[in-house]
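Schema walk-through. Below, the input block comes first and the output block second. Nothing else is stored per chain. Lengths vary across the set, and this one has 152 residues.
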Amino acid sequence: MINNDILRRIRYMFDYSDSKMIELFKTVNYDVKKTDLIEWLKKEDDPLFIEMTDKELSIFLNGFIIEKRGKREGPQPEPENHLNNNMILKKLKIAFDLKTDDILVLFASIDKKLSKGELSAFFRNSKHKSYRPFMDQYLRNFLNALQTKHKK
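--- output ---
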């Protein structure tokens, strides 16, 4: 899944305006130009489409976490230069304040079966023997379930 698609899905889920999206970036002290945002939101086949970097998505997700949960005390987390689906899942879990059972219910709500063991493997350290990568299809399904729950 490309970063731009995740950005578009979150925008759609909460019906965020361009100015609201820019505000989420500013929450973590990142100035994004409206033209950049518009190019990120375009479809891949549009000639003006620009692919969003992992760091830019990480910055956005950090701002989204603050929007949903509030700013934590102390130093704010630094944006990651490299993101994978497991890290995106963790950030979304934090933003939506989801527990293991909440995530399992979300998957069940769209008729996707996932066990507690499978889910915990996605949150393990990548060097752990039971670690499992959170594949694109899982991420798509998770975002679909979130969208079904949160879309007004």
